[in-house]
Specification:
Blueprint lengths: L2 H21 L3 H5 L2 E8 L6 E2 L1 H14 L2 E16 L2 E14 L6 E13 L5 E10 L7
Parallel strand pairs: 1-6
Antiparallel strand pairs: 1-2, 3-4, 4-5, 5-6
């Protein structure tokens, strides 16, 4: 297996862990996917800098939501590798409903991430930016 193939496989494992932690609303599992000096840029929000701030934000988000995740998927259109850095872009889509409720809602965001390879060969999210996608977007 080539180094590029190994890196893409490791990046896929990062994505799988992201999906699993997101479906479970696991703030600690999500935080573990970021580098210590990660930065997250969300729409209309100040930058969230560093793993402590990201972890605190994820904990607040999980504590404030009373929903059941029915579906969650990530679709990345492109992944570019540059040594120990990768850039990827795509979208994240979710279907959820209030716990005990019946009304189902969907969400879709565009995302671009800069990933970093760690010395052990695993990859983590180093920078991320996301914004809501158009409701009737062509896929």
């Amino acid at each position: 297996m080539t180094n590029e193939a190994k890196d893409l496989k490791a990046i896929e494992r990062l994505r799988e862990a992201d999906v699993a932690a997101s479906k479970a609303y696991d703030a600690e599992g999500l935080a573990a996917l970021f580098t210590d000096d990660a930065v997250a840029l969300g729409p209309g929000q100040p930058p969230v800098r560093g793993i402590a701030a990201i972890r605190a934000g994820l904990r607040r988000m999980v504590a404030s939501l009373d929903i059941e995740v029915l579906d969650y998927k990530e679709t990345f259109e492109e992944t570019l590798l540059f040594g120990d850095t990768a850039v990827e872009w795509g979208r994240i889509e979710g279907t959820e409903r209030p716990r005990g409720g019946v009304e189902v809602s969907t969400s879709r965001v565009h995302v671009m991430r800069v990933l970093r390879r760690l010395p052990d060969g695993s990859w983590r999210i180093h920078r991320t930016i996301y914004a809501p996608a158009a409701a009737q977007e062509d896929r």
